[in-house]
Amino acid sequence: MKLKQIFDGIYSDGRKNYTENLVKGKKVYGEKLLTFKGKEFREWNPFRSKFGAGLKKGIPSPIKQGQNILYLGAAEGTTISHISDIVKEKGMIIGIDISARVMQKLVELSEERENLIPYLVDANKTDETKKELNNVEFDFMFQDISQKNQTDIFLNNAKVFLKKGKPAMISIKARSISQKSSAKILQEEKQKLEKEFIVKQSAFLEPFQKDHLLVYCEKK
Ligand SMILES: C[S@@+](CC[C@H](N)C(=O)[O-])C[C@H]1O[C@@H](n2cnc3c(N)ncnc32)[C@H](O)[C@@H]1O
């Protein structure tokens, strides 16, 4: 089996996607490991990661080795672990989550992955995060937060942490917003985003994730 690079740090065997494991021999969420040309790769499961599902649905990855990434809704670090593989040692990911329970796992993960910095905070509290992350310039922001005001959280954080022209992605979960038809909700949320972002591409994440839209955009 051969692997071909499809985006910076992301590889495909034609069916599944992989990232090169930053911490050899270690799995993060039970994913398969494989060796190709002497290097170890971790399978990226699209059923466990919205970013991973987006790749399968044709959304490109703008992330490059060495970049600084802001990740809102880090949870236990499933998706973040692949981003950690992509940005490698010289990059950095700030992983924000409100839950102390999941943060415990993320802290353990950050002990093996030095480019990962967990931050326990409510993503609504941008004044607090701004003080902590004062001088950091981010190359990309990703959000996966299932809250009613998820689009506002994204817009508020982008206002503080993203410069004009920088890429960002949001996974919008329709059912967290209301019980209206998900197509209608997702359309309304996309329109909200368009006030401050140029929407480059979007995709429904079925069959990997139900009622989710992943939007890839660029700050105006
Ligand atoms: C669907 S999970 C994220 C899964 C993760 N993105 C992954 O692929 O590995 C959503 C996360 O958002 C977090 N969350 C919810 N509301 C939040 C808020 N206001 N600020 C920060 N995190 C929040 C939850 O604690 C939960 O861990």
Can you put this structure into words, describing what you see?
The chain is of the alpha/beta class and 220 residues long. The chain has one domain (46-219): Vaccinia Virus protein VP39 (Rossmann fold, 3-Layer(aba) Sandwich), CATH 3.40.50. 28% of the residues lie in helices and 29% in strands. The chain is built from 6 helices and 12 strands. The strands form 2 sheets. Strands 8-7-6-9-10-12-11 form a 7-stranded mixed beta sheet, sandwiched between helices. Strands 1-2-3-5-4 form a 5-stranded antiparallel beta sheet, covered by helices on one side. Strand 4 (33-36) and strand 5 form a beta hairpin. The longest helix has 13 residues, at 100-112. It starts with a strand and ends with a strand. It binds S-adenosylmethionine (SAM). The site of S-adenosylmethionine has 18 residues, from helix 2 and strand 7. S-adenosylmethionine binds next to helix 2 and strand 7.
